[in-house]
Amino acid sequence: MATLVAENLTFAYAKKSKPVLNKVSVEIKPGTLTALIGPNGAGKSTLLRILQGQNTPDKGEIKIDGENLNRSRALVALMPQRSSMNWKFPITVEKLVSLGQIKYSKSRSNNPFQIKTLLAYPNSWINKCCELEATMQRVGIASLANRRLDSLSGGQQQRALLAKTLMSPAKIFLLDEPCAALDPPAKEDFLKIVRQLADAGLSLLVSSHDWGDSLNNYDQVIVLDKSVLAVGSPDQIQDKLEAINISSINENNFCD
Ligand SMILES: Nc1ncnc2c1ncn2[C@@H]1O[C@H](COP(=O)(O)OP(=O)(O)OP(=O)(O)O)[C@@H](O)[C@H]1O
């Protein structure tokens, strides 16, 4: 369980350029599913990268359970946009998912894949294998373990990428447009899974272009367009959006 609080984040990609984020504050509570919505170029991906520590804000601060993000980066994991993946890479689902653990383990002294750890803690390898199996089951891809990534549907690929992300020891998960390019049933399946993860105590922030009934799956909705335009429950957001003129957002290619 972990709470992420970001306050007054301001960020520009170059010194003299205009900020792409301006005084953005967000709070992600344990066991909640939050949607981050906004038009193209609103700064959603930038914000997720900052919250994960890949980019540093020019101003503002990010704390996890009161500790600076620098000290607790391992508690935050980012699932990147699907366009950043090479889906043709010859790898099985199981191997991809296990990479989520190995990547993290490199920087840890208790890497369960290291011989010295194995000797000291013989169950660590078994535990990690169980975790791999459990994580694949959690997102409904256990039966696809030996399939190659390029033989999967888009929805299955996204679930495999989610499972890889879940293999990290994080408690807060930032998902960058995980439902982009998924057909409605696959989108619905994916949202059910993230809902279950939140109900199990994880904190999830999911960026999306979706506007409509799917927002009802979320506990909190943040509307971003360089700054936070509105934040609240799906019902509260509907009311607020009318006040801030949703048509101007739609004109900005705010799709679906
Ligand atoms: N690496 C970068 N260098 C310079 N500018 C960037 C970089 N990445 C993004 N930007 C700019 O920052 C702004 C915010 O982009 P960002 O990708 O965060 O928005 P977004 O809301 O995720 O957009 P989309 O919904 O289209 O993915 C845009 O104007 C974009 O052109």
Automatic annotation (TrEMBL):
One of its GO terms (molecular function) is ATP hydrolysis activity. The keyword ATP-binding applies. It holds the Pfam family ABC_tran. InterPro entries: AAA+_ATPase, ABC_transporter-like_ATP-bd, ABC_transporter-like_CS, Metal_Ion_Import_ABC, P-loop_NTPase. Keywords: ATP-binding, Nucleotide-binding, Transport. CDD domains: ABC_Metallic_Cations (cd03235). PROSITE patterns: ABC_TRANSPORTER_1, ABC_TRANSPORTER_2. The keyword Nuclease does not apply. Residues 4-250 form the ABC transporter domain. Belongs to the ABC transporter superfamily. This is ABC transporter, ATP binding domain, possibly Mn transport. It comes from Prochlorococcus marinus (strain MIT 9301).
